[in-house]
Write a structure and sequence with these properties.
- The complex is a heterodimer of chains A (about 290) and B (about 475).
- Chain A contains 14 helices and two strands.
- Chain A is mostly helical.
- Chain A folds into two domains: about 60 residues; about 210 residues, Orthogonal Bundle (MetI-like fold), CATH 1.10.3720.10.
- A two-stranded antiparallel sheet of chain A has the order 1-2.
- Chain A is flat and about 80 Å long.
- Chain A starts with a helix and ends with a helix.
- The model of chain A has no long low-confidence stretch (mean pLDDT about 85).
- Chain B is mainly α and about 475 residues long.
- Chain B folds into two domains: about 190 residues, no CATH class; about 240 residues, MetI-like fold, CATH 1.10.3720.10.
- Helix content of chain B is about 70%, strand content about 0%.
- In chain B, a hairpin with a 4-residue loop joins strand 1 and strand 2.
- In chain B, helix 15 packs antiparallel against helix 19 and helix 18 packs antiparallel against helix 19.
- The longest helix of chain B is centred in the N-terminal third of the chain and has 37 residues.
- Chain B is flat.
- The N terminus of chain B is likely disordered.
- The chains are: A mainly alpha (about 290), B mainly alpha (about 475).
- At the A-B interface, helix 1, helix 3, helix 4, helix 5 and helix 6 of A face helix 5, helix 7, helix 9, helix 10 and helix 11 of B.
Chain lengths: ~290, ~475
């Protein structure tokens, strides 16, 4: 008898859980569905964007054609890809170097350096944006993609924390054995630590690759040439530049967002495992 | 910490003095001619590098940096305005290149940093030469160039590893930062914009304006407190709603009897992968006064711009949208950690007949909180500086001149960061006030994070897992 009641209770609670999950799932997926739907929706005239199902509704890839033909989206895509790859390579190298030094090597100023880096990282980046702009200008670099790469990877050392947390957990025994065998520090770094650090490397690569796709504030300050925009700024300007730009361009914006989102989602899904490992290994530790 | 640094600094000072007192003549000459001690003793490569550094530094100071340093310490940031002047002899207007306060300050800071770096190399040079003296005295042989390189790849491997990242840090973080801190002590605003105008030092005038209670355009203390309060309220709710919501969803997915766990997780994770600015702009358009939500509901609610009740509705909406954006992250993290909670805890609790609610509050939550406290505080600091969510959703608005006054530039949902940003990108920028805000944000975040990272066991037990 009581067994039956327990069974019913269990079924009920499972059903309830499903109900909650489905509700939440819908809440999370709906805005994305709206984005995809708008991307494929063709607007014959302006002013109907805010009607969900107008009478003269047409679906098709017209927005994508407009996106690639009428705007410089393809150029922006290329720019972003270039900046993302270069800054990701630089950032990852820098972070690995700094966190290896701070985690595995012992030297006099190590602790103070760690605290200074931590504090420096707390300064809101765009407060110093104008100064960065003029430093770049003095170097003759404004309005170039190189400037963006330097800005994105220049302060990479500040995000050493997660990666160092990971290095801290790698056992020392192996490298001590290697050093006894006469291996130098670069060899230890290259041959022993790096292969073990694969999850954290993937995590760092992933996060540093994605950030140029999302930033529009620094690009807006440093780049004034439309041809040198990245996708984020291009899309942002598309619906925020002029008064009517929202109604005119919203569907095209959604098409662009769909493309960018597609790229990142694919990347993210294929590396999700590493991302989770990175988040859980470095960011949180008892 | 500051005490320790002082001891170290005086240590370096003492080293230098003792090097001068007890060193050879070659070492003493190294105080003036860098690398002399090394060249004299046959360490050609090392000495040449030092000598070259000195030559380059001197050239830099003479040709470029020197005058900015002189300007920086002359007590003003330029006196001569650019403009046109009548040239009597040639009977034409001549353009005069006046001073540019901005560049004086910027290049002054750059030169200061160059000098600081130079001093470090200079001290290394003297100490190196003195060490040579000591070695010779003890009958030891000096290190060869090859040995020096070997040391750099072994005992001193940290130096080559840190060099390049730190150079980037100095150029793109430290110099701009020092510069912006100095701006807080000037009157650099729209009325004093180079190159047309000059700006100058004003001491702590801007801090007085920011923290004075006089109101209007002369005292922003009340506005500042309101923005600060909202910044903290926002950071608190943004952090904890995300955390608990994420934890609950993770628990729901993990529940026994729920199928397709990976699918449920993926559903939420898609929201992470779509770039934040896209989802935020999309949400902003959906919630707009003429947006799709109002059309669907047939209402006319200003979701993001309703000023009533101290803009309560926009504030709520921001937190709500932030849940949508942030929960997938915490979900991922929490599900990772939940799997690591030792199963025997739960079994023991079940044997004792504890209810699921009790288990949650007595096992799951304490365990999670214990492990994720550093994460929570990082998130809290991150949310204090969460520019994107506020800026893209409301732009800091709605404007509320009654409550915030028109002079401060602050609006109802502004965080300190968005207020700062508006002050620098406005039609009438006030860089000086913005810098003051920046310093405040910096102090708050720095204190919070230093406490966390030095108190948590992860900092104390770096080597626990090795």
């Amino acid at each position: 008898m009581s067994k039956n009641i327990a069974k019913i209770r269990r079924h009920f609670s499972t059903a309830l859980t499903y109900a909650v999950l489905i509700t939440l799932g819908i809440a999370w997926v709906l805005p994305i569905c709206y984005l995809v739907y708008t991307a494929f929706r063709i607007t014959p005239s302006t002013g109907i964007i805010n009607t969900l199902f107008p009478d003269n509704l047409q679906l098709g890839i017209g927005n994508f054609i407009r996106l690639f033909q009428d705007t410089m989206f393809l150029t922006w895509l290329g720019n972003t890809m270039f900046v993302a790859i270069c800054s990701c390579a630089l950032t990852t190298t820098f972070i690995l170097m700094v966190s290896y030094a701070l985690s595995r090597l012992r030297f006099r100023l190590r602790k103070p350096i760690m605290n200074v880096l931590l504090v420096l990282g707390m300064f809101p980046g765009f407060m110093s944006m104008i100064a960065v702009y003029f430093i770049l200008k003095a170097m003759g670099l404004t309005n170039s993609l190189l400037a963006l790469i330097l800005v994105y990877s220049g302060s990479a050392a500040l995000s050493y924390y997660i990666c160092k947390g990971f290095f801290d957990t790698v056992p020392r025994a192996m490298e001590e054995a290697a050093i006894l065998d006469g291996a130098s520090q670069p060899v230890v770094f290259w041959k022993i630590i790096l292969p073990m650090a694969k999850p954290i490397i993937v995590y760092t690569v992933l996060t540093s690759f994605i950030s140029p796709w999302c930033d529009f504030i620094f690009v807006n300050t440093i780049i004034s040439d439309r041809e040198l925009y990245t996708v984020a700024l291009g899309l942002y300007k598309m619906i925020n530049a002029e008064k009517n730009s929202f109604n005119d361009n919203f569907t095209v914006f959604c098409a662009g967002a769909f493309v960018v989102g597609g790229i990142i989602v694919t990347l993210f899904m294929s590396m999700q495992r590493y991302y989770v490992e990175g988040v859980t290994s470095g960011a949180v530790k008892g | 910490m500051s005490k320790k640094n002082k001891i170290k600094k005086s240590g370096i000072g003492k080293d230098l003095i003792s090097a001068f007192k007890n060193g050879s003549h070659a070492t003493r000459l190294s105080f003036l001619v860098m690398g002399f001690g090394q060249l004299f003793r046959g360490q050609i490569a090392k000495g040449a590098v030092y000598l070259l550094t000195e030559v380059i530094f001197l050239l830099y100071m003479i040709l470029f940096g020197g005058r900015y340093i002189i300007h920086l310490f002359s007590g003003n940031l330029g006196t001569k305005l650019s403009g046109e002047q009548w040239n009597e002899a040639l009977q034409i207007f001549e353009k005069i290149q006046g001073h540019n306060s901005f560049l004086i300050l910027l290049y002054g800071v750059v030169s200061l940093v160059v000098i600081a770096l130079f001093l470090v190399v200079w001290a290394m040079n003297v100490k190196g030469s003195f060490q040579n003296d000591l070695r010779l005295k003890n009958g030891e042989r000096l290190s060869t160039f090859k040995e020096d390189i070997h040391a750099l790849l072994n005992e001193r491997f940290y130096a080559p590893l840190l060099a390049l990242p730190f150079l980037g840090l100095i150029v793109f973080t430290v110099m701009p930062l020092v510069f912006m801190v100095l701006i807080a002590f000037t009157n650099y605003d729209y009325a004093h914009m180079p190159p047309g105008k000059l700006f100058d030092w004003v001491g702590i005038e801007n801090f007085k304006t920011m923290f004075s209670l006089s109101g209007g355009n002369s005292g922003f203390a009340m506005v500042f407190l309101r923005v600060l309060l909202w910044t903290f309220v926002w950071a608190f709710f943004a952090t904890f709603t995300n955390y608990f919501f994420g934890l609950i969803v993770a628990l729901l997915i993990q529940k026994k009897g729920i199928r397709l766990k990976a699918l449920w997780r993926t559903l939420f994770v898609v929201a992470i992968a779509v770039p934040q600015f896209v989802t935020l702009l999309l949400m902003q358009k959906i919630l707009d006064g003429d947006g799709i939500l109002n059309k669907l509901l047939g209402t006319n609610i200003l979701w993001l711009a309703d000023q009533r009740n101290f803009s309560l509705l926009p504030r709520l909406m921001i937190i709500l949208v932030n849940i949508w954006i942030g929960v997938p992250y915490t979900l991922l993290m929490c599900s990772g950690i939940l799997m690591n909670i030792p199963a025997d805890y739960y079994e023991a609790a079940k044997i004792d007949g504890a209810s699921p609610v009790r288990i949650f509050f007595h096992i799951t939550l304490p365990y999670m909180l214990h492990i994720t406290t550093p994460y929570l505080i990082t998130q809290f600091v991150g949310n204090i500086n969460n520019f994107n969510v506020i800026w893209l959703l409301t732009g800091g608005g709605p404007v509320d001149n009654v409550y915030y006054g028109s002079g401060s530039g602050a609006q109802s949902t502004d965080l300190l960061v968005t207020w700062l940003y508006r002050l620098t990108t406005d039609q009438n920028p006030k860089y000086n006030v913005a810098s003051v805000i920046g310093i405040v944000i910096f102090v708050i975040s720095a204190v919070l994070s230093l406490i966390t990272f030095n108190r948590t066991s992860s900092a104390k037990s770096e080597e626990a897992f090795q």
